[in-house]
Amino acid sequence: KDPETLVGPYINSYQKYRIRYPKWWSVTEEGGKLAKAREVTLAHAKDPDIYIKISVKAEKLGAKDYADKLTKENKPSRDWDYVNNLVILTWESDKTFKQEALFTKDGVLYDIVATCPTFAAKEYELTFKEVFKTFVSF
Q: How far apart are CA 117 and CA 86, in angstroms?
């Protein structure tokens, strides 16, 4: 299946990134203004099990070293992938398909986690990749 049409971009000027997301999906900034939107969820309009969550936090490790740390704790189901400057990790279980895109800049880790039910992975994997491609840190 083709990826969904992307709209946006969603721009987080405090955390210094922008990203496009699928048409009809909603954007929720966790914690509102006080938390400066350190977590943002891009959610499917009809299925709450399909979403992309973007977290921003201070991190001394670079994206590849952080990915290495994550994969030692929980072995991915595929080899690492790369989209632009993002390191992509993929886990797949009986119930959940999850891709995690990591990017670091100036001691800040951008952690983008895309999740859907395993049965929908073929339908949404290309969409997740297209969303990852649109991520820009500024």
A: 23
Q: Is the pLDDT of residue 112 over 80?
A: yes
Question: DSSP readout, the chain?
Answer: -PPPPEEEEEEETTTTEEEEEETT-EEEEETTTTTTTSEEEEE-SS-TT-EEEEEEEE-SS-HHHHHHHHHHHS--SS--EEETTEEEEEEE-SSEEEEEEEEEETTEEEEEEEEEEGGGHHHHHHHHHHHHHT-EE-
Question: Cβ(25)–Cβ(45) under 8 Å?
Answer: yes
Closest CA to 78 of 86, 67, 89, 68: 89
Give residue-wise pLDDT tens across range 53-97.
999 999 999 999 999 999 998 999 999 999 999 999 999 999 999
Full-model pTM: 0.93
CA distance 31 to 93: 30
Q: Does residue 7 contact residue 23 with C-beta atoms inside 8 Å? A: yes
